[in-house]
Design brief:
Radius of gyration: 21 Å
Shape: globular
Number of strands: 34
Largest sheet: 5 strands, antiparallel
CATH architecture: 7 Propeller
CATH topology: Methylamine Dehydrogenase, Chain H
CATH class: Mainly Beta
Strand content: 35-45%
Number of domains: 1
Structural class: mainly beta
């Protein structure tokens, strides 16, 4: 039975298809995986300190038989990677510990092991290393449980003429293309000589060699990036999206930056370096951009307060704008792309004086509730799942940050490749999306989460709260 709260994000379009996801489509495997190490599933967000899910990196092996999950130790040092049977979600073999790491920032599964994007301090004595053991991004490859190679993606020896990059908070993602034989890593960085924040896109070959690719590698892209979406393609550049601090979300596959020859997906109010946590905020930036099967098409999901009353961004110049929020709460939006460079619908306007800066947005959920933690994954070449969490009666005191209140459910909405909603959303009070969503060989979409009471009433402290040694999984079947 579909249960809806009295106040929820109202549907914003007439349904052309009436099939609705029901609880029979949602399968849960509660506390099925016993963890060898403790995990703290909650992370405080930037600025507000409100609780966010601490990311559980998750990836499916090429043969579809195994899922790998990576999680940060409760001590907040060491990342643990566990192989899991994709049918039973029980552990296969022993946990592999990657010592000294600070976050599980992205994971790729292979038939013989995994690759992990993480961050860690440089070795003691490294010349021009970041101060105070500030971690830098690094990519590990493990084969049959043993380290094959390790490649730093920041620090003094990576693009030193442009920026000395560290990642005290590794907000980003890791993808891999078997066609190109290249890993792509997109992550937030800080220049540890100036303190400015930006982002970086780096490519690494199968043998661990850092590869500099003109028109694909990006050493310093979107300023004070508050959200990343990244997905593989047959050849670099891989599909990429960023949320910057000047007023927009960009499809920046072509530019690897925030220049206005990119595709402007959305106008967003940006204040104090924030833009409403459009791709999840701290521990976010995963499963926001997904490819429809083996096609060139992509879907992107984010949350937004809308945009109105556009003014000129005189600091950036022509083609850049500031906007005011249309709503105090956040709603859920999607955008479709015919390929990694091209948005299906119109771009967001850059017309100074425009009262309406969000007319192009395809709203999946729109109303008075606050919607957050949006993700998208695809069932096949024509159908996708969009999911978000919700607070029906939110307190939103920060203009460009998150909200707080009583959690009122996780929502799951099926859409097709044209962006049309299929039926109404399914709501669950005890299933969350706390890790990467993967498409199984049978077409189900599965993801990890922690079975817990989700308290969103106010700020949390780093390292506080109960830890767990249990992990759950959920899977959704399509109604198509």
């Amino acid at each position: 039975m579909l249960v809806l709260p009295f106040i929820l994000c109202l549907l914003s379009a007439v349904q052309s298809v009436t099939a609705t996801l029901t609880y029979s489509n949602l399968q849960t495997h509660v506390d099925v995986l016993n963890l060898e190490f403790s995990f703290n599933p909650v992370k405080p967000s930037y600025w507000t300190g409100y609780g966010h899910h601490r990311r559980i990196a998750c990836a499916l092996s090429p043969d579809g038989k195994s899922i790998y999950v990576a999680y940060l130790d409760a001590s907040e040092t060491d990342v643990h990677v566990q192989e899991v049977d994709s049918s039973t979600f029980l552990a296969i073999g022993s946990t592999v510990t990657v010592s000294g790491c600070k976050e599980a920032g992205g994971l790729v599964a292979h038939s013989d092991g995994f690759a992990l994007l993480t961050n860690e301090p440089m070795p003691s004595g490294t010349a021009n290393a970041p101060p105070s053991d500030t971690p830098v991004p690094v990519l590990y490859r493990y084969t049959n449980g043993a380290q094959s190679w390790k490649t730093f993606l920041g620090g003094p020896d990576v693009h030193p003429k442009d920026v000395l990059a560290a990642s005290p908070d590794l907000n980003g993602d890791l993808v891999y293309s078997s066609e190109s034989g290249l890993y792509g890593a997109y992550f937030v960085i800080t220049d540890y000589t100036s303190g400015h924040f930006g982002d970086s896109i780096q490519y690494v070959a199968d043998n661990g060699t850092l590869v500099i690719i003109a028109g694909a590698t990006g050493d310093w892209g979107c300023s004070h990036n508050t959200g990343i979406a990244f997905e593989a393609a047959d050849q670099p550049p891989y599909a990429s999206i960023c949320a910057e601090d000047q007023g927009a979300i960009w499809l920046n596959t072509l530019t690897q930056s925030m220049t206005n020859n990119g595709v402007k997906i959305s106008n967003e109010n940006t204040t104090n370096g924030g833009s409403g946590e459009p791709m999840g905020g701290m521990s976010g930036s995963y499963s926001a951009l997904a490819q429809f099967g083996d096609t060139t098409k992509y879907i992107f999901a984010w949350v937004s307060r809308g945009a109105m009353d556009l003014t000129a961004n005189t600091w950036m110049g022509g083609g850049y704008t500031h906007s005011l929020n249309r709503t105090n709460n956040r709603n859920v939006a999607i955008a479709l792309f015919s390929d990694k460079y091209t948005m299906v619908d119109s771009q967001a306007t850059s017309q100074v004086g425009a009262e309406d800066g969000d007319s192009q947005v395809n709203w999946v959920a729109k109303g008075s509730a606050d919607c957050f933690n949006a993700h998208a994954a695809t069932f096949d070449t024509e159908n996708a799942l969009v999911t978000w969490e919700q607070i029906d009666n939110p307190t939103c005191e920060y203009i460009a940050m998150g909200c707080c209140g009583q959690f009122s459910g996780t929502y799951f909405q099926q859409v097709d490749s044209s962006g049309k909603k299929i039926g109404q959303p399914l709501m669950s009070m005890d299933v969350y999306v706390a890790g990467d969503m993967v498409t199984m060989s049978d077409g189900r979409i599965c993801w990890p989460y922690i079975n817990m009471d989700w308290d969103l009433s106010g700020p949390v402290d780093e390292g506080s709260g109960p830890t767990t040694t249990k992990m759950s999984f959920a899977c959704m079947n399509s109604n198509a």
